[in-house]
Amino acid sequence: MPALAIATGNAGEFTLQQLACTLAVLAAFGALVHGVAWCLLRRYGATRVAIVASAVVAWLCCSTLLTDHLGSIRPIVGSIVLGVAVVAACYRVLRHGADHEALARATGIFALAFVALGALRVASAALRVDRLYATSATVRDLTADLPAPRRSSRPDVYLIILDNLANARIQREVYGRSNRAFEDSLAALGFAIPAETRSNYAWTPLSVASLLNLGEIRGLEADLGPASHGFTVPYRLVQRNRAARWLHKAGYTVYLQPSIVFPGTLQLETPHVSYGPGGWRRFVEVYARNMLLRISLRQTLPIRFLERTQIVPPISRPRLDALLTVGDVAAAPGPKFVLAHSLLSHEPFVFSATCVPRSDGIEPGSDDRQAYVAAVSCTEKLVLAAVRRILRNSAQPPVIILQADHGPASLHPPVVGRAAEEITPEQARERMGAFGAYLFPGVPHEDIPATLTPVNVLRFVFSRYLGAPLAPLPDSSFYSSGERPNHFVNVTPFVAVPREAPLEVPLGAYTALR
């Protein structure tokens, strides 16, 4: 029941395999409790054992859901109180000689009804996402086939998404840090870093969907309504993106390492090859990726207890693998399109500057700037190592795109309701200040646009190397709150300025801007 409730509220953020795995794990846990109860209490008969075991399972799996919402009572106290009540009820069931068949049947019917209702809600939520996706004019535009390639040159294309990584300007102005050594090292390898790099959208699902579909997605405001919640349609756009589909038709092999945490790059519907660590680490990766399973298990008392005692093994290591293993496919025969999504510089910041796991992982929403700077330093080290490995093992010069989806949010831009209009220029510059660096072999640096945003990156690559007639789109930037992600506010005048120039824009200008 808790797993289905979580799945209903997060439609589109998990696969059917993940849901099946989660339900199987929880069912096995319930079966284990029933087995232990039978071994200890079988002299009382199957009916009473079933009632007792069910009560214990309900307490272990559901009590935290209740106590977490009781603000006046500590969760541990609430769980103990509920535990005492469960023990008293079980004692009464075992010690009294009344017939408990009716109670067992009622409990079973009640549980099955709730599970069936949960399954119907999950199915209904999935159908709603399908309907929104199918009826959106913006989706139809973004999923339309691109023109066939006109050139035979097909270099390997590596797209490495560096989530939440700020550009040089933001690192300097907001965090007092210089990334000059990192940029100089990339330049020595042939990378171009445009004078202005920024994002088109403020949230990963929106930015990555725009990047991989080579188009604007702000039409979702008209299709879904400005008050719409959630990122289910952008997630689907990422999973069915036309960049991978077009490259596959052009003879490319598509490689993906399923990302940690972000549902969009967890899977692709285009035929692809999954890569990543092998051996026992693959099982850790599977667990780390299955957020539905992790969240469901965290609702159980045993996992809560193990987390408090720090017995649960850390799963921070998989966050490194997107950069550690992206070079694994460099020696594979081409042409290939390799997609890697690194969340090292995204909260929670769980690594030091030397990529050693922190014991005090910072939770989402924290304003620990030192932790962010440390995570950025770790990211830069692994990016340079990955790029050098790719270049060393590639048979021909590859295209390598290092692209952040958006900048950080230490200045706390508005995230609730329609408060997007209240964003300040400083908040907009930080949030939209995304890093970007590009290795375009054979392309003079002066031919690379001075300003490059995610919406135009693959348009540039496809037109330059494959002859696809794709004109650049405006490098506009739009902010939306996390609660209403499809209510877009044009913040381009706040962010589209030279690095050295001050920016003075009146806060009341939003009606005209939009």
Describe this structure in words.
By secondary structure, this protein is of the alpha/beta class. Helices cover 49% and strands 7% of the residues. The chain has helices at residues 2-9, 16-41, 46-67, 75-95, 101-135, 137-143, 168-175, 180-188, 204-213, 220-224, 232-239, 242-249, 280-289, 291-298, 301-308, 318-324, 369-393, 425-432, 454-465, 492-495, 510-513, and strands at 157-162, 196-197, 253-256, 273-274, 336-342, 399-403, 436-439, 451-452, 478-479, 489-490. The strands form three sheets. The protein has a six-stranded mixed sheet with strand order 4-3-5-1-6-7, with helices on both faces. A two-stranded parallel sheet has the order 2-8. The chain has a two-stranded antiparallel sheet with strand order 9-10. Helix 2 (16-41) crosses helix 3 (46-67) and helix 3 runs antiparallel to helix 4 (75-95). The longest helix has 35 residues, at 101-135. It is elongated and about 90 Å long. The model is unreliable at 361-366 and 499-514 (pLDDT under 50).
Give the SSE map.
Blueprint: H1 2-9, H2 16-41, H3 46-67, H4 75-95, H5 101-135, H6 137-143, E1 157-162, H7 168-175, H8 180-188, E2 196-197, H9 204-213, H10 220-224, H11 232-239, H12 242-249, E3 253-256, E4 273-274, H13 280-289, H14 291-298, H15 301-308, H16 318-324, E5 336-342, H17 369-393, E6 399-403, H18 425-432, E7 436-439, E8 451-452, H19 454-465, E9 478-479, E10 489-490, H20 492-495, H21 510-513
Parallel strand pairs: 1-5, 1-6, 2-8, 3-4, 3-5
Antiparallel strand pairs: 6-7, 9-10
Helix pairs in contact: 1-5, 1-14, 2-3, 2-14, 3-4, 3-5, 9-11, 9-19
